[in-house]
Amino acid sequence: MNQSKAKALQDWCLITLGVVIMTVGIYFFKFPNHFSTGGVTGISVVLGHYIPGITPGTFVSIINVLLLIVGFLVLGKSFGVRTAYASLLMSGLIRLLEIVLPLDQPLTSQPLMELMFAVGLPAVGSALLFNLDASSGGTDIVAMILKKYTSLNIGIALLCSDIVITLAACAAFGMETGLFSLLGLIIKSLFIDVVADNLRIQKCFHIITSHPEKLESFITDTLHRGATRLHGEGVYTHDGKTILLTAVSRHQAVLLRNYIHQEDPSAFLIITTSTEIIGKGFRGVN
Question: Is the same domain home to 212 and 144?
Answer without folding.
Answer: no
